[in-house]
Specification:
Elements lengths: L3 H9 L10 E4 L2 E4 L12 H17 L15 E5 L5 H9 L4 E6 L12 E5 L13 E7 L8 H10 L1 E12 L16 H16 L6 H10 L3 E11 L7 H29 L4 H14 L8 E10 L7
Helix pairs in contact: 2-7, 5-7, 5-8, 7-8
The structure holds S-adenosylmethionine (SAM).
S-adenosylmethionine binds next to helix 2 and strand 4.
């Protein structure tokens, strides 16, 4: 009997070799060697802990739910793109015993053990997908804004390999600016200064910072219908009056404390040519503002839900 998992394993991972497990170290952080040219962030334990913390932040945002999408029945075949530590895929598989979940990532940072209905695969989502066409009933893609360079092609592949009527959920966030409603983060304060250095580096690497509206437009252009955008304003730091928002802000600040170096240091020193000492000071000053209750900064988390038409029109 034809089996999707056997088929996929044979066609897509047959070329994997020992080299997939190799790492390099830079500035005390561990990077996965095979993904180093494509993906900026490290894959060490600090980064894995940060990814799991961000997962919990999403659960808080979505009232304990793993998705914004509501399902009438378990989607049979599910793909989690750029699954990171695999935490979302494992929890989704646990909640949906009738689903077969595939988590795919460039880096081998998923657990060696797994649930019977969850599999992890190593592959590059920017290459031509080897999955069957019209196959997945739900595709989940979260926080790949630093990963995907060719978004129209990526969304086109998602569309092509999704079953008619299948559901898609994309979650992304603002990457190159923070906001305030009360001017408590002046232009000459550390974070706006850091963003001014980061923006040209992103551009040089082909990373495009996009708004929720732009992501939504691209999802529509890929052919999806019933495309909805949900935008959450998320505080950075524990400054909000509301208790729930204060807790969210505290989690965000913690993810940034452990992530800011990974997101910025190599980039601004190697690509932006900022001298090492200056870069260190900019990062230290930026991190310090995370515990400043006078700075009322926030960013946006975007959730986009969509469906592939039952009858293909493009
Ligand atoms: C910021 S993490 C998000 C992880 C996960 N989606 C989550 O929300 O916890 C981005 C992940 O995408 C993976 N990645 C980057 N480029 C990729 C590519 N071209 N193909 C597959 N995975 C990729 C990275 O290895 C990393 O695990």
């Amino acid at each position: 009997m034809w089996n999707f998992f056997d088929h996929y394993r044979a066609s897509s991972t047959q070329s994997l070799t020992e080299s997939i497990m190799e790492h390099v170290y830079e500035n005390g952080r561990r990077y996965h060697l095979k993904s180093k040219d494509q993906y900026l962030l490290p894959s060490d334990e600090t980064e894995q802990d940060r990814l799991d913390m961000v997962h919990h932040l999403h659960l808080e945002l979505l009232g304990g739910n793993l998705t914004m999408t509501k399902f009438d029945e378990h989607p049979a075949n599910v793909l989690d793109c750029g699954c990171g530590t695999g935490i979302w895929a494992l929890e989704f598989g646990d909640e949906h015993s009738g689903s077969q979940v595939v988590g795919v990532d460039l880096a081998p940072i998923q657990p060696g053990w797994s649930a019977p209905n969850v599999k992890f695969e190593l592959d590059d989502l920017e290459k031509k997908w080897t999955y069957p066409k019209n196959h997945f009933n739900f595709i989940h893609s979260r926080h790949l804004n630093m990963s995907i360079r060719d978004w129209p092609r990526y969304l086109g592949q998602i569309f092509k390999h999704m079953a008619p009527g299948g559901r898609f959920e994309l979650s992304e966030h603002t990457t190159d600016e923070w906001f305030t409603d009360d001017n408590t983060m002046p232009e000459d304060s550390p974070m706006p200064r850091l963003f001014r250095v980061l923006r040209p580096c992103y551009r040089a690497l082909g990373i495009t910072a996009m708004s929720g509206v732009e992501y939504k437009r691209m999802v529509e252009e890929a052919g999806f219908e019933d495309v909805k955008l949900y935008t959450f304003k998320v505080p950075i730091g524990a400054w909000a009056q509301d208790r729930r928002l204060r807790r969210l802000g505290a989690i965000v600040a913690e993810t940034l404390r452990s992530g800011i170096e990974a997101y910025t240091f190599n980039l601004i020193t190697n690509v932006g040519k900022v001298p090492v000492e200056e870069a260190k000071k900019l990062m230290t000053d930026s991190v310090a503002t995370l515990s400043d209750p006078k700075q009322h900064a926030y960013y946006f988390e975007y959730f986009i839900t969509a469906r592939k038409p039952l009858i293909e029109t493009i």
